[in-house]
Design a protein that fits this description.
This protein has 294 residues and is mainly beta. The protein folds into two domains: 175 residues, Immunoglobulin-like; 86 residues, Immunoglobulin-like (Sandwich). The chain is 5% helix and 37% strand. It contains two helices and 18 strands. The strands form four sheets. Strands 1, 3, 5, 7, 9 and 10 form a six-stranded mixed beta sheet that branches. Strands 13, 14, 15, 17 and 18 form a five-stranded antiparallel beta sheet that branches. The chain has a four-stranded antiparallel beta sheet with strand order 2-4-8-6, with no helix packed on it. The longest helix has 8 residues. The N terminus is likely disordered.
C-alpha cells in the first residue's frame, strides 16, 4: 500500500498519515460496544463521541507540544483483502474484507471518494453506500463491509466505459494519555485502493485493454517522455514502463479513451519496443511489450 497524505498513486496505496476525520459527518455511524470481561479495561475511543474538525496533523501535534520526527514507514494493523475492487453493474452489492493483524483491537472508518483524496464528507458524491462505515475489529479477527450500489445518487454515470472511485479505510488509534514528561503524537493510518464500476456489455475484454495501448515517445520542455493512448473501454493501470533503456519515473493509470504522458528518467536509446507491466483485476502484475508508433 502507498504512503502519501494528499493524493493516491495508481497502484495499491501504502498507508498515509492523515488527520482523523469527524465521525459525526454524514455517513459515519457509532460502532457497537465491544464485549469485555467484568473489570477489564479496554482501549479508549471515547473521543470519537465528541465532534472535532478536520485539521492538519502537524497543527494538532504542535498544539499538543509533540516533537516531530520523519517516520519512514507507517504500519497498518488493519489491511484490506485485495488491491482493487471490481463492481459489475448487474451486481447489487459486494463484500469487502478487512483483517486486523495486530494483537490489539482496532477502530476503523471506511468510505468511498470520487478521486479527491482530501474531499470533505459533505462534498463527496458517489453512487455507493458502505455498511458499517465505522467498526471495531478485535485482535487477529476480520470485519466484512457491504458495498451497495445506489444508482439514484449518480444516474449520469457513463454506460459505455468504466468509471473509477476509491475505497478508503482509516485506522483510528485509541486515545492514550501522555506521561508528564512525555510528548505524544498519534497517527491515524489510511489505506486507499481503486474501485472500478464496470457497466454491462462493454466492448472488448479487460485483459485486451493493455495489449491495445498505442505507444509513442517524444520530447518537451521537461525532457524525454513516453506516451500511451488507451482506445479501450477499460482503465489500464501501469506498474512499470521502459523504452531504449530509459524507464518511466511515475507510471500511472490510463482512463478509457484517454492518453497519459509519462516522463522518462533519461534519454532513451535506439530501441523501438516498449516493455511494460500492467495490473489486472486481481492485482497481479503482467508483463507485455509493444512497438512504438511510427
Amino acid at each position: 500500500m502507498a504512503a502519501r497524505p494528499v493524493r493516491a498513486p495508481p497502484n495499491p496505496m501504502p498507508p498515509s498519515r492523515l488527520p482523523i476525520p469527524d465521525p459525526t459527518q454524514p455517513g459515519a455511524a457509532a460502532a457497537a460496544p465491544a464485549r469485555r470481561a467484568p473489570g477489564q479495561a479496554g482501549p479508549d475511543w471515547s473521543f470519537l463521541m465528541h465532534r472535532f474538525s478536520f485539521r492538519p496533523l502537524l497543527a494538532a501535534a504542535l498544539m499538543a507540544g509533540a516533537s516531530m520526527a520523519i517516520v519512514p514507514h507507517a504500519h497498518a494493523g488493519v489491511v484490506i483483502v485485495g488491491t482493487r475492487i471490481i463492481f459489475d453493474a448487474n451486481d447489487k452489492d459486494r463484500t469487502i474484507q478487512l483483517n486486523n493483524q495486530d494483537d490489539a483491537p482496532a477502530m476503523v472508518q471506511a468510505w468511498i471518494d470520487a478521486g479527491d483524496a482530501d474531499a470533505k464528507a459533505s462534498e463527496i458524491r458517489v453512487p455507493f453506500v458502505l455498511t458499517p462505515p465505522l467498526a471495531r475489529i478485535e485482535p487477529r479477527q476480520g470485519q466484512s463491509l457491504r458495498l451497495l450500489h445506489t444508482p439514484q445518487a449518480m444516474p449520469e454515470l457513463p454506460t459505455d466505459r468504466e468509471s473509477v472511485f476509491y475505497f478508503n479505510v482509516l485506522e483510528i488509534p485509541p486515545r492514550r494519555e501522555a506521561a508528564p514528561d512525555e510528548n505524544l503524537l498519534q497517527l491515524a493510518v489510511r489505506s486507499r485502493i481503486k474501485l472500478f464500476y464496470r457497466p454491462v456489455g462493454l466492448e472488448g475484454k479487460p485483459r485486451e485493454a493493455a495489449a491495445n495501448l498505442r505507444w509513442s515517445r517524444g520530447r518537451d520542455a521537461d525532457g524525454e517522455y513516453l506516451e500511451a493512448h488507451n482506445p479501450s473501454r477499460y482503465h489500464v493501470s501501469l506498474a512499470t514502463a521502459s523504452v531504449g533503456g530509459a524507464s518511466v519515473t511515475e507510471p500511472g493509470m490510463i482512463a478509457p479513451g484517454s492518453s497519459l504522458r509519462m516522463a522518462l528518467d533519461k534519454a532513451p536509446g535506439a530501441g523501438q519496443a516498449v516493455q511494460f507491466d500492467w495490473i489486472d483485476d486481481f492485482g497481479g502484475h503482467l508483463s507485455a511489450s509493444a512497438a512504438l508508433a511510427q
